[in-house]
Amino acid sequence: MTTTTSPRALEHPTRDQIRLEAVLHALADPVRLRIVCDMAREGTELSCSYFDLPVTKSTTTHHFRVLRESGVIQQMYRGTAKLNALRGDDLDALFPGLLDAVLAAAGAQAGREGEGGRGGGDGVS
Amino acid sequence: MTTTTSPRALEHPTRDQIRLEAVLHALADPVRLRIVCDMAREGTELSCSYFDLPVTKSTTTHHFRVLRESGVIQQMYRGTAKLNALRGDDLDALFPGLLDAVLAAAGAQAGREGEGGRGGGDGVS
DNA sequence: GCCGTACTACGATGCGTATCGTACGAGCAT
DNA sequence: ATGCTCGTACGATACGCATCGTAGTACGGC
């Protein structure tokens, strides 16, 4: 039977199932932290293929799964693509200020290490 | 010379050597997160033996080492004891608000789980 | 000096996970 | 339909790490 709705369902934790340790663990990986920073910077839903990551497709899928199952992002299908969005409201309701602090920290660290060769573009507004 | 040269020297990262990923990774472990929360609650230097952790001494040493090498805590010997203190000022200078957000998040989660279902003594004063 | 306490060092072990390659399924274009 | 692109699933692998036990070192008290 060809279901008209999404044939593949994606499991997400509900808001009260989100665990702080899982979120921190998800954000502790450089690849995933970069994904989250990019998503926050764009502020809109992005497909997986938008990101230019230094790993293969398989690993990318793995990282997105970790982010989704930890409750950091939300995923939904749109045709062949899969859109990703930050669960900023859920995270902020559970852990106020945490996501902002991590994003600011990542930006600060990137700026700190990026300075010294680039001129004019600091990347963080 | 005030003979402050301790017989055992402990290596700490300097402030600008602290990496966000390492800090997040250190905080992502339940045992270490609990240690950090306890230290923040007491606000003073605490010996390793102060903590009542559900792991052996060896594992405790390992966790304290991870916390120290990631830059989250500072350790110094005082006689046979080893005192631990949060590097709150360094962390706040590097990643403003991050430690506070994590501590608040941990407290919120502990409170959330403590009220609804009785389970174990996860005492938070 | 001797012993107890506090912590460390080293080795072993089992589990999680980050990584890859390949094979596959779902949708879109021609 | 054929093929192409996007993403998934599964197996394999290697590394990290949380855990333990035991032996050892430093310091203080008796």
Automatic annotation (TrEMBL), chains A, B:
Domain of life: Bacteria
Limits of the HTH arsR-type domain: 12-106
InterPro entries: ArsR-like_HTH, HTH_ArsR_DNA-bd_dom, WH-like_DNA-bd_sf, WH_DNA-bd_sf
GO molecular function, one term: DNA-binding transcription factor activity
Protein name, per record: ArsR family transcriptional regulator
Organism: Streptomyces viridochromogenes
